[in-house]
Amino acid sequence: MSGERALVTGGHGFVGSHLAAALLAAGWAVRVLDRPSPRRTDLGGPRPSGLELLGVGGEVELHEADLLAAEEVSAAVHGCDAVFHLAAQTIVGIASRSPRETYEVNVGGSWNVFEACREQEVGTVVFASSDKAYGSAPELPYREDFPLRGTYPYDASKAAADTIARGYALAGGLPLAVTRFANVYGGGDLNFTRLIPETARALCEGRAPQMRSDGSPKRDFLHVEDAVAAYLAIEAALRCGDAAPGEAFNAGGDAPHSVREVVEEMARAAGGEVVPSWGPGVPAGEIADQCLDSTKLRGLTGWGPRVSLPEGLARTLGWYRDHPEVLP
């Protein structure tokens, strides 16, 4: 893709930085739009950017601005051939405590991105929605033709932005596809309120992981390398006309696993046993069980997850062991 420029919003973050690195490796010029990396009060310094952790911080063009600053968003979009919109307020707990901020960022900020892309006639746009947008569907696995039933603040914000995105594509002519991915995990995720980073940190520190649930909720997990491959496959399908504007695509690991299974598998990878501190039931504001049907994406592009959960968890644990400087 020599000469082509891609914008990744949320590029300081876990998935965005991995996507930026993959785009660079594929020959794209990469621009990143994100807020400045937040400070880590526990260490008294800046939190490492995912771009820095992957060693590509000096290879991207960085625009540090807020999604709600429409003019800054427009400037970042200018001159880009493709836009991957991943930036969002992604933490379910924060969404429940601060729904206004979540709606402003996830809906209003996304609106700014879509409008800038429409005005500047960007060639392809890939929007990261979420499996959470389906809400509590009457059956599993989720398929793309299911209605969006987001109820809790985070779920509802993603469902709203998802609907707006498809509206820009179907009514506004924007060449945009929507992605609804499973829980993405892997090395470099610094959100230690999430299951896998917290479990990895606890195993590295030799303590009991602090779990929000009783271990029963089931989730679909997707290694970050497979998630990035799905983003690239969807953009390519949209660019060559195999995917129609407004289409949505699921990508998951093909089978749900309980929280308890994940913790036990990581303990095995660590070579020992662990007794977590379990929470009561399913946390408020979260859906009990989720799983995605990825048949559509497989059939169109040949994509499929290549990293098994045991392999991915072992690799993830190894990454945290090799990077003790990121542990709070």
User: Average pLDDT across residues?
Assistant: 92
Q: What oligomeric state do the depicted chains represent?
A: single chain
Estimated share of beta-strand residues: 15-25%
Poorly predicted spans: 39-44
**What would the principal axes of the Cα set say about the shape?**
globular
Fill in the keyword field for this structure.
328 residues, alpha/beta, Rossmann fold, 7-stranded parallel β-sheet, 3-stranded mixed β-sheet, 11 helices, globular
Structure description:
The chain has 328 residues and is α/β, with parallel strands linked by helices. The protein has a domain at 5-184 and 222-252 and 292-300: Rossmann fold, CATH 3.40.50.720. It is 40% helix and 15% strand. It is built from 11 helices and 12 strands. The chain has helices spanning 14-25, 50-53, 70-77, 92-97, 99-119, 153-170, 195-205, 224-240, 259-270, 295-301, 309-322; strands at residues 5-9, 29-34, 39-40, 45-46, 61-64, 82-85, 124-128, 176-181, 183-185, 218-223, 248-251, 256-258. Strands 5-2-1-6-7-8-11 form a 7-stranded parallel β-sheet, with helices on both faces. Helix 7 packs parallel to helix 9. The protein is globular. The N and C termini lie far apart (38 Å). Residues 39-44 have low confidence and may be disordered.
